[in-house]
Amino acid sequence: MCNISSCDVDSKVDQFFQPTLYIIVIILGLPTNCMALWAAYMQVRQRNELGIYLINLSVADLLYILTLPLWIDYFLQHDVWIHGQESCKLFGFIFYTNIYVSIAFLCCISLDRYLAVAYPLRFVKVRRIKTAILVSSTVWIIEIVANSAPLFHDELFQDRFNHTFCFEKYPMQEWVAGMNLYRTFLGFLAPWTAMLVAYRGILAAVRCNISTERQEKAKIKRLALSLILIVLLCFGPYHILLLVRSVMFLRKPCDCSSEETLFAAYHVTLALTSLNCVADPILYCFVNEGARNDVSRALASLMSSACRRRSSSSPSHADILNAGSVTMETPLSTKKQSCVYANSGKTSSYKTELLVMKEECLQMTILGVKK
């Protein structure tokens, strides 16, 4: 048993790098994921099972983004959580569970594309809306249960350097090290390996299919490769350091040197996982042609309606010239006659104009009666 209660960990980048990155993710990720959610819904309306996985991916990303303001505050406070134990558990649970939910749904998308390309007729019944809903529900249940252990433990830890860590302890606890191994191998490596296998199958199927155009083949390859790269670049560095920390702790539980050495790099790689929330909507909105067209139509519609509202609310040049004037309308015409009051000594001319207007009104009324 180790008697060390806390390690001397500190990072000079926490107050700058993480808050800046999270703010960028919020600014970019919130609107793009909302658009992606709408595009995925349009895919579902077209009976495309891929839209179900995309909806779940967008929901997971949006939940993650909603937790970022508190994490920004956490790092600005120099690794001090001031929002209480229960909020730490809840927001930490959402934050970390999103990593594995996102990986799982990216894997589902890869496998779905593999079946669509390699076996377009054999697995038609598998690639249905109902099946996608069942698979998505299973993914959520598995990931929630697998990552729920921290909800039953205290997750606020104070050290002798006035840090109040949320969802992290240095040195880590033994059960956390075991859970990290599970997360690394089953939550990250297993899905990523499945995606590699699916990518290889897609390449083989596309190569053998002579009816598919070269441009379409390149698009399919690009989409499959993008899925693999997102998982590798966003989540790979974090899980490498997570594995190193866990293995070194299990070998030397009382050694703080590795934790102190890896602390800053670990926090940076953890922050980089948030880029997934920006990469996901870009992936299927700008690589998937159908989703891209849906988003383009939505943006065009929004811009058109905004322009109409602006033009209807903005005063015209004539309105500006006639500002402060009193207008009169005839019963059968919408032509406006303005009478501008000024101290120019032309009161008689105004009276004459009023008399003329009254005569016009009378004549129009007579004409209306004759009709």
TrEMBL record:
<protein>
    <submittedName>
        <fullName>G protein-coupled receptor 4</fullName>
    </submittedName>
</protein>
<keyword id="KW-0472">Membrane</keyword>
<comment type="similarity">
    <text>Belongs to the G-protein coupled receptor 1 family.</text>
</comment>
<feature type="transmembrane region" description="Helical">
    <location>
        <begin position="132"/>
        <end position="152"/>
    </location>
</feature>
<keyword id="KW-0297">G-protein coupled receptor</keyword>
<dbReference type="GO" id="GO:0007189">
    <property type="term" value="P:adenylate cyclase-activating G protein-coupled receptor signaling pathway"/>
</dbReference>
<keyword id="KW-0812">Transmembrane</keyword>
<dbReference type="Pfam" id="PF00001">
    <property type="entry name" value="7tm_1"/>
</dbReference>
<dbReference type="InterPro" id="IPR017452">
    <property type="entry name" value="GPCR_Rhodpsn_7TM"/>
</dbReference>
<feature type="transmembrane region" description="Helical">
    <location>
        <begin position="181"/>
        <end position="202"/>
    </location>
</feature>
<keyword id="KW-0325">Glycoprotein</keyword>
<keyword id="KW-0675">Receptor</keyword>
<feature type="transmembrane region" description="Helical">
    <location>
        <begin position="53"/>
        <end position="72"/>
    </location>
</feature>
<feature type="transmembrane region" description="Helical">
    <location>
        <begin position="223"/>
        <end position="244"/>
    </location>
</feature>
<keyword id="KW-1015">Disulfide bond</keyword>
<keyword id="KW-1003">Cell membrane</keyword>
<feature type="transmembrane region" description="Helical">
    <location>
        <begin position="92"/>
        <end position="111"/>
    </location>
</feature>
<dbReference type="InterPro" id="IPR002276">
    <property type="entry name" value="GPR4_orph"/>
</dbReference>
<keyword id="KW-1133">Transmembrane helix</keyword>
<dbReference type="GO" id="GO:0071468">
    <property type="term" value="P:cellular response to acidic pH"/>
</dbReference>
<feature type="domain" description="G-protein coupled receptors family 1 profile">
    <location>
        <begin position="32"/>
        <end position="284"/>
    </location>
</feature>
<feature type="transmembrane region" description="Helical">
    <location>
        <begin position="264"/>
        <end position="287"/>
    </location>
</feature>
<feature type="transmembrane region" description="Helical">
    <location>
        <begin position="20"/>
        <end position="41"/>
    </location>
</feature>
<dbReference type="GO" id="GO:0004930">
    <property type="term" value="F:G protein-coupled receptor activity"/>
</dbReference>
<dbReference type="InterPro" id="IPR000276">
    <property type="entry name" value="GPCR_Rhodpsn"/>
</dbReference>
<dbReference type="GO" id="GO:0005886">
    <property type="term" value="C:plasma membrane"/>
</dbReference>
<keyword id="KW-0807">Transducer</keyword>
